[in-house]
Design a protein that fits this description.
heterodimer, A: alpha+beta, Butyryl-Coa Dehydrogenase, subunit A, domain 1, Butyryl-CoA Dehydrogenase, subunit A, domain 3, 3 domains, four-stranded mixed sheet, four-stranded antiparallel sheet, 11 helices, 8 strands, B: seven-stranded mixed sheet, two-stranded antiparallel sheet, 9 strands, globular
Chain lengths: 376, 341
């Protein structure tokens, strides 16, 4: 056990830190569309420096970083308050799924443009009636000349209106559950695809609904085998960014620094109950960081295991508790809705839903780590 | 950055688990822990906490923590914890005269030390029968009571796996070195023991939930039960991460230990109590019977959390270290907002 960075890891960290110092794009614009363009430009900057595909193998234009290096990279990005690249879904899900299950032709067509940000990706998995129970998607794929016709509705799709490609899970046969879905790469720029923004409780629109009405997907855009989409989708969902635990802990730590300032401003730094609530948040943040790094050691060189659910559950409830404390210490000022903390208070409610609800994460821990009997 | 045990550390963990399992299979409990102590001393386990220059093995706090976690899991009485905690306290907080005076004795089979808690002007000693000396800890002090009086005044112990004795501590000699350092190191060992308590309480809950049938199914198939168990896992693994990190920090980056030790104590104390309480709930009425072992874990968790410094003491220290302390603000120790060019 060694919790210090090795000389190589230190060199890597210093390289990233120095590069971020020189190339940080400055403050991000508030407007949603301008913000997206800003992040797209940022991805091009990252790509030119060879950092867009930090986790990708070198043969596909990536950096081939180790799990620890990926964690360091993510931490440094957070530390510098750098934005996330625009094509994040292509980088962490689309690319890896093409590398793992795609044909050589698919790799040639898709991978380089994911890295450069020339083609943006979105994910069409969830539906109004298929959330946690993803295998019950109803969007249909019907055989057509040279490919498939897609009809149905997807929901909670980020960046759908800017995306060129959609990772789409659709029902391709009436076969048994888990054997009736196919994983498609669907072109979003065609008739038969309609994108409608969803307004969320914060008032903004990060997510969309997509309506497919006979949209066409050629055979060469099927990933893996027909009717084997469930297994591929499951694998996709495991491509969580390693080291996310440490980076998300650091993001919260930076906000805890702001919160300490807010507590002092409101004259509550001597209040025993506020101090202890605050200290509990600090403790939880530190255990997320440690669980994140410990998970990397357990994952070794493979894909992170079900233990990742531990960090996901902790992070969601920590972020919610932190924004609640910030709300509680502000007095009357909390009534005004245009503050950063008011936004965070509302946005944090999604943390225990998005990316697999905390209930689903607990199912995963109960069934796959503790080996408890399954209800289903 | 490698957050896992090496082969040697794994071997220590396996070996001490075997020793603890053998004790359990003989059906031994608190009443025979005196004999168990001799067995541990004979195989060298009790010398780990004493520095080499004083005749011990000078093991790292990480290795000691691995032993303590297994002891907690097996609910071995407190003699080992008390002895190890006393040894690290004297080694870290004793001065030039005090260390050579007491530590060589602690490396011998007859030199058992006990841990005590300052209380109402006197002290409560944990598992002190047969101990040669005791280290009495207060929030900011540590003092050695040498010798432990022959006739001890027994008190009813909340933790039925340990004995408790009231003593006058007027004659105890204060450790004159860096007391915080010793208390922090001892706290890590206590936290390690509490992780073992939480671990075993969780195992018992999972075992019971997998076997107990109600409404025609094992109760662990119901999410009201399985999610409770999943929350136990989150707490146990977090506490284990915190303890391993604090122990490593004590050995390699001691200047960072105050924060790491506080995080370890808070997470391990919370995990032990909450997991034991949740495990009792999963066991239903059976968990409320004297015969069933879960209450022993609950009692150990409650008592363990109150040894050395309180959780609230640590939370206050963490608040001070992270931007809510007067000195921290003056010294600019607040997490800096990173400049965006």
């Amino acid at each position: 056990m060694d919790l210090t960075l090795s000389p190589e890891e230190l060199r890597f960290r210093d390289e990233i830190r120095a590069w971020l110092d020189q190339n940080h794009p400055g403050p991000a614009p508030q407007d949603t569309e301008q913000n997206f363009d800003f992040r797209l430009a940022w991805q091009r900057t990252l790509h030119e420096a060879g950092y867009a595909g930090i986790a990708w193998p070198r043969e596909y234009g990536g950096r081939g970083a180790t799990l620890v290096e990926q964690a360091i990279f993510n931490e440094e990005m957070v530390r510098a308050r750098a934005p996330a690249p625009a094509n994040i879904l292509g980088l962490i899900m689309g690319g890896p799924v093409v590398m793992a299950h795609g044909t050589d032709d698919q790799k040639r067509r898709f991978l380089a443009r994911i890295l450069s940000g020339d083609e943006l990706w979105c994910q069409g998995f969830s539906e109004p009636d298929a959330g946690s129970d993803l295998a019950s998607v109803r969007t249909r794929a019907e055989r057509a000349e040279g490919g498939w016709r897609i009809s149905g509705q997807k929901v909670w799709t980020s960046y759908a209106h800017r995306a060129k490609w959609c990772m789409l899970l659709a029902r391709s046969s009436d076969g048994a559950r888990y054997r009736n879905l196919t994983y498609f790469i669907c072109d979003m720029r065609q008739d038969g695809v309609t994108v409608r923004p969803l307004r969320q409780i914060t008032g903004e629109s990060e997510f969309n609904e997509i309506f497919f009405d006979g949209a066409f997907v050629p055979d060469e855009n099927v990933i893996g085998s027909v009717d084997d989409g469930w297994n591929i989708a499951l694998a996709t969902l495991m491509f969580e960014r390693p080291g996310l635990g440490a980076a998300s802990a650091l993001a919260i730590r930076l906000q805890l620094g702001e919160l300490a300032g807010l507590i002092r401003q409101n004259g509550l730094d001597d209040d025993a109950s506020v101090r202890r609530r605050f200290a509990r948040l600090v403790v939880e943040t530190e255990t997320i960081r440690l669980n994140g790094y410990r998970g990397l050691a357990r994952a070794g060189e493979g894909v992170p295991g079900p233990e990742g659910s531990i960090v996901k559950i902790q992070w969601a409830s920590l972020n919610q508790a932190m924004t609640e404390l910030a709300f509680d210490v502000q007095g009357g000022a909390a009534l005004e809705s245009d503050s950063t903390w008011a936004y965070r208070l509302l946005r944090a409610r999604a943390n225990s839903i998005e990316g697999g609800t905390s209930e689903i994460q607990r199912n995963i821990l109960a069934e796959r780590v503790l080996q408890l009997p399954r209800l289903r | 950055m490698r957050f896992d045990l090496n082969d040697e550390q794994r071997a220590i963990k396996d070996a001490i688990r075997e020793v603890c399992d053998a004790r359990a299979s003989r059906g031994e409990g608190a009443e025979t822990d005196g004999a168990f102590w001799s067995e541990l001393a004979k195989s060298g386990w009790t010398q780990m906490a004493v520095p080499q220059e004083f005749g011990g093995q000078g093991s790292g706090l990480l290795e000691l923590s691995l032993v303590l976690e297994e002891m907690g899991r097996a609910l071995v009485g407190g003699a080992y914890l008390g002895h190890a905690a006393a040894a690290v306290l004297i080694a870290a907080s004793g001065d030039e005269q005090q260390r050579p005076r007491w530590l060589p004795g602690l490396a011998t089979a007859d030199g058992r030390a006990a841990l005590g808690q300052a209380h109402n002007g006197g002290a409560l000693l944990v598992d002190a029968s047969g101990a040669a000396l005791a280290v009495i800890a207060g929030p900011e002090t540590a003092a050695v009571l040498d010798p432990v009086p022959g006739a001890l005044n027994e008190a009813a112990s909340l933790d039925v796996t340990r004995t408790l004795h009231r003593v006058e501590s007027a004659g105890a000699e204060r450790l004159r070195g860096d007391v915080d350092r010793g208390l922090d190191r001892a706290e890590v060992l206590l936290a390690a023991e509490l992780v073992g308590v939480a671990q075993r309480a969780m195992e018992l809950a999972v075992e019971h939930a997998s076997n107990r049938q109600q409404f025609g199914r094992p109760i662990g198939a119901y999410q009201a039960v399985s999610h409770r168990c999943a929350d136990m896992l989150v707490q146990v693994e977090s506490a284990r991460s915190a303890v391993l990190s604090a122990a490593w920090t004590a050995d390699h980056e001691p200047e960072q230990l105050p924060f790491a030790a506080s995080v370890a104590k808070v997470t391990a104390a919370s995990a032990a109590w909450q997991v034991a309480a949740a495990s009792l709930q999963v066991h239903g009425g059976m968990g409320f019977t004297w015969e069933y072992p879960i209450h022993r874990y609950l009692r150990r968790a409650a008592a363990g959390a109150r040894l050395l410094r309180s959780v609230d003491h640590h939370l206050d220290r963490i608040a001070d270290q992270n931007g809510l302390g007067a000195e921290a603000v003056a010294a600019g120790a607040v997490q800096p907002a990173y400049a965006v060019p």
